[in-house]
Amino acid sequence: MKNHIPVIILFLICSNTILCQSIKDSLVHELENAIEDTTKIRLMCEISVDFIRYNPADIAAIEYAKKSIELSEKIGFYSGVARSCYNLGVIYQNNDNYSKSLEYLTKSRDIYENLKDKKGLAKVNNAFGKHWYTVEKYEEALKYFEESNLLFREVGDLTNIGATYLNMGAALDMIKEYDLALEYIFNALNIFDSIGEKRIICSSYLNIGEHYELRGEWEIAEKYYMDGLKLSKEIDARPRIADSFYHLGRYYYKKGDLVNAKIYLDSAYNKANELESLLRRMEVAEYLEHINKTQGNIKEALMYAEIYNIINDSLNKIEISSQLAKLEWERDLERERQLQDKILQRQKLMRNFSIIAVFLVIIILVILYRNFRIKKKTNQLLSEIDELKSRMFSNISHEFRTPLTLILGPLDEMIEEGESKRPSTKTLKMMRRNASRLLALVNQMLDLSKMDAGKLKLVLVENDIVQALRAMILSFSSLAEQKHIHFEHEMPDYPCITWFDPDKLEKIVNNLLSNAFKFTPENGIVKVVVKLFSETRTTLVPPFSCENPVLELSVEDTGKGIPKEHLEKVFDRFHQVEGTSEIEQIGTGIGLALTKELLNLMHGNVTVESTPGKGSKFKIILPLGKNHLKEKEFILIETEQIPDKRKTKIQEELQTVTAEEIISNPDEQLYLYADGKEDLPLILIVDDHPDIRTHVRQKLKKFRVLEAADGKAGLDISIEYLPDLIVTDLMMPNMDGVEFCKKLKTDERTSHIPVIMLTAKASVENRIEGLETGADDYITKPFNMKELLTRINNLIGQRQKLRERFSREVTLQPKDIAITSADEKFLNRTIDIIEKNMGDGEFDVASLREEVGLSHMQLFRKLKALTDQAPGDFIRTIRLKRAAQLMQQKFGNIAEITYEVGFNNLSYFAKCFREMFGMSPSEYIKNN
Fold this sequence. Notes:
Blueprint: H1 5-32, H2 37-54, H3 59-75, H4 78-94, H5 98-115, H6 118-134, H7 138-155, H8 158-174, H9 178-195, H10 198-214, H11 218-235, H12 238-255, H13 258-275, H14 278-295, H15 298-417, H16 425-453, E1 458-464, H17 465-474, H18 477-483, E2 486-490, E3 497-500, H19 502-518, E4 525-533, E5 550-557, H20 591-601, E6 605-611, E7 615-623, E8 634-636, H21 646-661, E9 682-686, H22 690-699, E10 704-708, H23 711-721, E11 725-729, H24 737-746, E12 755-759, H25 764-772, E13 777-780, H26 785-809, H27 822-836, H28 845-852, H29 856-867, H30 871-888, H31 894-900, H32 906-917, H33 921-927
Parallel strand pairs: 1-8, 2-4, 9-10, 9-11, 11-12, 12-13
Antiparallel strand pairs: 1-3, 4-5, 5-7, 6-7
Helix pairs in contact: 1-2, 2-3, 2-4, 3-4, 4-5, 4-6, 5-6, 6-7, 7-8, 8-9, 8-10, 9-10, 10-11, 10-12, 11-12, 12-13, 12-14, 13-14, 14-15, 15-16, 16-20, 16-21, 17-19, 18-21, 19-20, 23-24, 26-29
């Protein structure tokens, strides 16, 4: 029998190879016929798994796994890549190529983590655990088994949960944690029992029996071995039957019951022979050799000894190869660790270098950005300065051009009239007033220039400061009356003799009060409070003791206020609050700047508080006397050297002019000059400067004239009176000329009125802006009155021609005219309404007025201005033209046409027809 054992072993190996080959051939045939790439990947994975199960050493298993990886990567099927890498890792693990196994298992784990595939990740962790169990690192293996068990529990895979419990129990047994190991094994047994996995239950019984056998509890071990054998036979699990026979034989052998031991071991050997399990046969042969030798069966003992030696030699070769592979793997692993350490050191150096480089780049970028910000801020400041200068020159130009107009205009007229006619005193006063205005502006510019050059000094006189302030403040009473503003003032009732500069103090007070009155509406309040303190500002200066007093003066108004974002800039030179309807009213933008710098020169200070919509409060603190001044900062003059009252008179005139300029009450802006001549054209003059309005009005003697002080009042007057022509200024408070003109030209009621725009802004951009809003003409100040009169006559003449043209052409077929002005759109709409109601004899002027949406007077004036026809005549004209058109088209007889065009009386129709066409309807039909 001993000579036949190698042959039997070879036969069993060959039969196993034939079985594997048949399975492989079946899968390969199916793979060749597969069409989809994913199907091929699945089949190659199954082939490699079958090789793992039947012959892990076959190189074909590795090749199929690698091909599966290549195809999966090619089509981007990452799940297939992960599965194939897992299979290849298990193949290398079964062939003891641990370095390759770890490489592919790690790759599979990384992909499953990116895909968040918990089940795949659990399988890989279980494979890692088996790897560390194989190399006898049980604690490391236990850690991976636990991670795998946790993931399998998350996905609810009961079979693999039980399998990982068994693996954990085995690892715990190796580190002698018997109680915990037994707990995990029973957990696995309960799971397998619940899902009916009887084959695995058989293995669990044997594991439990071994566990109790290791602990020396023989009776419990025998019970589980018997339960395992019984269940194995019940389900015909031949590998488990062989294992059960082996464990029972070994159990009885250890107890000394050789008879039962031999019975079970003979059965175990036969089953192992059927299953071609070399290791089990070798283990059983060793026990049978000892039993037969003990019983005196020497021949059988020798046979089993020979079988043991043959199998042992074969397995030793495999073990040696495995140990060599393990050593090679450990060397590879060590080399890989050293390489990883070098890579980590290199990466650390590169990381440090990158951090330093990034830090340097950030520093460079910060420096560059800082320089860029500085450069940008500098350019912005330069741009703002240029803009301020441009605005200053524009506003100064405006301030100069208006008074120059009122000086040069009358001068030109005097020159033309010669010495025969002396100018009126009113005209001369107006010229002197505007010359004084120019002088005041020039003086302000000169004061600023002197301060910039450091050449302006204080001119101090010793006088009563209270009396001087009272004169300055009360001079604004007339202005308050003209503007209907309640003017309150509080001042000390005792004199205070001290040194001060009356001229500069007067400029400061005038600027503050002028601004307050300028921006306070009618029925508002302007309040001035003057207080005098001692040098320490603790007590009021008593009467007649004014040693180095301090002046506190506040000006409070209930005007529109200053936006918060502009408060810090109101004292900047040439600064103006933008975006307000009164931007042009602010002037040159140097008044408050001059006030601030004059106070700085006098060692004083000014502050402002303001709430938009409620008003503003300016407060100045000014030390008086001369003790706080350096000798080079002032000069002293005697009281007798102060100029006479002529200067004050001129200033009062200027204040009066200022009051007239800012009047904004519409009830006081409407003046009609015509002497009852209703047939004369009606001209509206819109300008915030009363002298300009007066000057222009006096030259328009052959017209009826209306006046308005701003665009808002001018718009209301235009809608109510529909003037024949409007002369307007560009720069006005409340509503400037651009907005005024835009509203006129976009309103159907006023779109036909021609507009001449007067302005001090003479640039091409300003002219284009004015003309784009619909202005018909544009005249720059200072202007020649003859030029203005000529342009007024031309526009009125052109309007008369246009009226005749509309009357002649735009009646029945207005669409034939090429232009589409707002006026013609209005006429088109009006004609469409009449044509829509052509056959309605009840349709009259009242019906037309309701359809058009204008009042009776507005409709009358609009149609009269455009067609020189009243609304009733206009309706009748269109009906008669339509009747003539129907006659030409042979629409029907005269009676039918009469009713078709809305006439209810044949004789009245014939009368109107003859008046318009000079012939009766029947004659018209005959001639046409």
